Amino acid sequence: MTQGYITIATKSPGNVQIEQAVVLASSLKLIDPDREFCLVVDKFDSVPQKYEDTFDSIVELPYGHYDPTEDIAINLWQLYACSTFEHTMYIDRRCIVTNNMDDLWDNMVLHDYIFSKSVENFRGETVPLEYRFSTHERNDIPTYMTDVFYFNRSERSEQLFKMLDVVLKEFRRVYLKFINENRPGYFDLNLLINTTLKMLGEETNIHGHIPYKLLSLDNLTLDDDDLPTDWIDYLSSWFANGVFKVNNHRVSGIICYNSDAFLDEEILDDYRQRVKDSNIRI
Amino acid sequence: MSYNGCCFFAYNNSEIDYVQLALLSALYVKKHMKNNNTCLITSDGDYNWLESSLGKELVEKAFDEVVITDVKQEENVRTHYDSPWTTFDSHFQNSNKHLVNEYSPFDKTLLLDIDYIVRNDNLDYLFEQEHIHVGMYNSACDLRGDPPDLYEQYLNPVGVPMWWSTVVYFDRSETSDMFFDLWAHTQKEYSFYKFLYSFPGHMYRTDYCVSVASHLMNGMADGDTIHKIIDGPMQYMDQKDDIVEIKSSNDWIFLSNDRNEPWKDIVSRNLHQNLHVMNKRSIGRNFDAMIGAVT
């Protein structure tokens, strides 16, 4: 019964996406070396040779990169076909994991798929994401979190990904049919996965929970109206020896940093060096 | 059998008779708690004033122990409100509060601010749980049940959670020693921690020191090394609120002021709740009725 992690990335300016996947895979290797990590890419040559040994497997999108003008996540429906595991945990590439995951796996494998109903802020508080879910709520769409989710090999999971195939490819038509108010003009993966769950009648059938922390200003109560869009322009963060702190508060577990500006060479090198030092064989 | 009880710090200034308030608070502990030994920590002059103003008999009824500590206090001016319309400044003397573990005569101690009025026995559980070494409140609410301003919930809006030094339970253990050492260290390096944790204001606040100490001891995260008192959130009467009537020792009526529209008050009845009565002059105006309810 194989269990493993998967994420998706593509070639991007400065190789940011691949480097984010490198840090995620390295962080998982340090705390969970026995479970494999699979990187899904549009083309093999998106991954620089120096990073290849970070991943247990690199898989090309089997049905091609559907629309290269959009977010690579438009191809997320292909994950079911890409995964070589019986039990798969998808983690967005903009995440770091710092704690052991065994307890979580023991719970997850009891389900067909899991999307979390809530997420914590950097202080560990559960605060509703009013801005992120304003469109969902106006259109009666469920509000599951989608940065991290789990699925197994089952008929129910297969159905979900088949429906995602249609919804993600035809997202503008789906918006026209299901999103009457506050319709976005861009590809919104979270909104589309939640719309898919609604189309399948699964709004209330998802049980189980994957706890993770989302670094964002949307899940903090603030007395400031002039907020930047990116949390890193407002909060201080430190990273050293695997310890991650935001405003001097230690953050641990599955951390979704949700920003392309967060990762720097220091963090990347730190993780790669620690994997090297720990002699983990990939 | 351990010797347990409550400690009160009280040093008078030109505006507030803290030792009288401590006596009042101690009498409420005597009335409502099982672990009701009491200890007054004060100066020689203030103790003499207490005996001469309220009589030796009442003082001996209120306090089982008295610790005289004539320490030099740091200047710490605090502006108080008495309703939204009146303010006054007083010299707040709290720079030796972290030494309570040296002063306390008890094996297990509940340190109470003199304006914290105990009106039930909910806090007795602290003395019965061997695994609790240090306990405090880390949430609060006003008379209406609303949370305080963001700066009283966290050290700053994006900072670490606030812990209240109004009520501090501690035993004799390495954990509590470490807690008081950290409190002393934070006080000594107050400017550094003020910068690091970005807490506001110029006044030295023991709440900030215990918040930093708790944050460090909890592993710089939301942990449970420092116990969160379960009789929470800590309810408080704001300095802008007023007392209308003391009907009995645990049935009081207040005027609760609206923070956003200060010309508005609503009447609020408060039954059986432990209460942080922050408007100290309102206690003075109702002192006889409050004493009368417990003697």
Number of helices of chain A: 8
- Per the CATH scheme, the topology name of chain B is Spore Coat Polysaccharide Biosynthesis Protein SpsA, Chain A
Strand content of chain B: 25-35%
What does the main sheet of chain B amount to? 7 strands, mixed
Shape of chain A: globular
Radius of gyration of chain A, rounded?
18 Å
- Write down the overall mean pLDDT of chain A: 93
Largest interface: A-B, 16 and 14 residues
Number of strands of chain A: 12
The CATH architecture category of chain B equals Alpha-Beta Complex
**How much beta of chain A, percentage-wise?**
15-25%
Number of helices of chain B: 11
The helix-and-strand class of chain A reads: alpha/beta
Share of helical residues of chain B: 25-40%
**Low-confidence runs of at least 5 consecutive residues of chain B:** none
Residue-averaged pLDDT of chain B: 93
Neighbour order of strands in the largest sheet of chain B: 3-2-1-6-10-8-11
Structural domain tally of chain B: 1
Order of helices and strands of chain A: EHEEHEEHEHEHHHEEEEEH
Characterization of the model:
The complex is a heterodimer of chains A (282) and B (295). Chain A is of the alpha/beta class. Chain A contains 8 helices and 12 strands. Chain A has helices at residues 16-31, 79-82, 102-108, 134-138, 155-169, 171-178, 189-199, 265-277; strands at residues 3-9, 36-41, 57-60, 87-91, 95-97, 113-115, 148-152, 213-214, 237-240, 243-246, 249-251, 254-256. In chain A, the strands form 3 sheets. A 6-stranded mixed β-sheet of chain A has the order 3-2-1-4-7-6. A 3-stranded mixed β-sheet of chain A has the order 5-12-8. Chain A has a 3-stranded antiparallel β-sheet with strand order 9-10-11, with no helix packed on it. In chain A, helix 1 (16-31) runs parallel beside helix 8 (265-277), helix 5 (155-169) crosses helix 6 (171-178) and helix 5 crosses helix 7 (189-199). The relative contact order of chain A is 0.17. In chain B, strand 14 and strand 15 (265-271) form a beta hairpin. The radius of gyration of chain B is 18 Å and the shape is globular. The two termini of chain B are 28 Å apart. Chains A and B meet through strand 11 of A and loops of B.
